[in-house]
Design goal:
Layout (H helix, E strand, L loop, with lengths): L1 E5 L3 H12 L4 E5 L2 H8 L6 E5 L7 H10 L5 E6 L4 H9 L4 E4 L4 H13 L8 E4 L2 E4 L4 E4 L2 E3 L3 H12 L7 H8 L10 H13 L5 E4 L3 E4 L4
Parallel strand pairs: 1-2, 1-3, 3-4, 4-5
Antiparallel strand pairs: 6-7, 7-8, 8-9, 10-11
Keywords: DNA-binding, Phosphoprotein
InterPro entries: CheY-like_superfamily, OmpR/PhoB-type_DNA-bd, Sig_transdc_resp-reg_receiver, WalR-like, WH-like_DNA-bd_sf
Protein name: DNA-binding response regulator, OmpR family, contains REC and winged-helix (WHTH) domain
Length: about 220
Amino acid sequence: MRVLVADDERLLADTVAEGLRRFSMAVDVCYDGDGALERIGVNRYDVAVLDRDMPGATGDEVCRSLARSDAGTRVLLLTAAAGIRDRVAGLGLGADDYLTKPFAFAELVARVQALGRRSAPAVPPVLERHGVVLDVARHTVTRDGRPLGLSPKEFAVLHVLMRAGGGVVSAEDLLEQAWDEFADPFTNAVRVTVMTLRKKLGQPSVIHTVPRAGYRIGEPA
């Protein structure tokens, strides 16, 4: 899942981003609304977490821009204003959810995960392919009932492949969806991560390389 976090409280934004990365999300961070508009113009995000009061373009303006687009990005607004009128106004901008500060981080994660499942196309909370079961909410993976200890990046790559439902996912798409904006497009990170993921999933292999195209989840080889 690709997430944008935009908040002018730098410590809060960085802390939220680091926490979401522990749940295998690829997170880009910016500290003002202009930076958020720039990033949504370049990248496609599943979820945007926006502070309403930011310098430059406000979170409200960023939310309106996303609502007018066809990107399918779900928006979670963060604000210190907890009144009913404030919440109603925020949702009226096109936001999908609203969370007031201060908040419990566990609740933020749950809300982001829920919004991610509602991104286009909708994704169920538990994915199962060929004996592999990935539970997004619990952040667990099993194969034939055997728990697997995956790194956050391995989990993210597996999630993207399983979301594709057997379709081929290119290395470029994996890099875009499972890594953040600082990923080097010429790195071999995707190949190395797929290799270690295959080892942890065990035999027979369910991740197949499609020459000159990418990778897919399929029947065991």
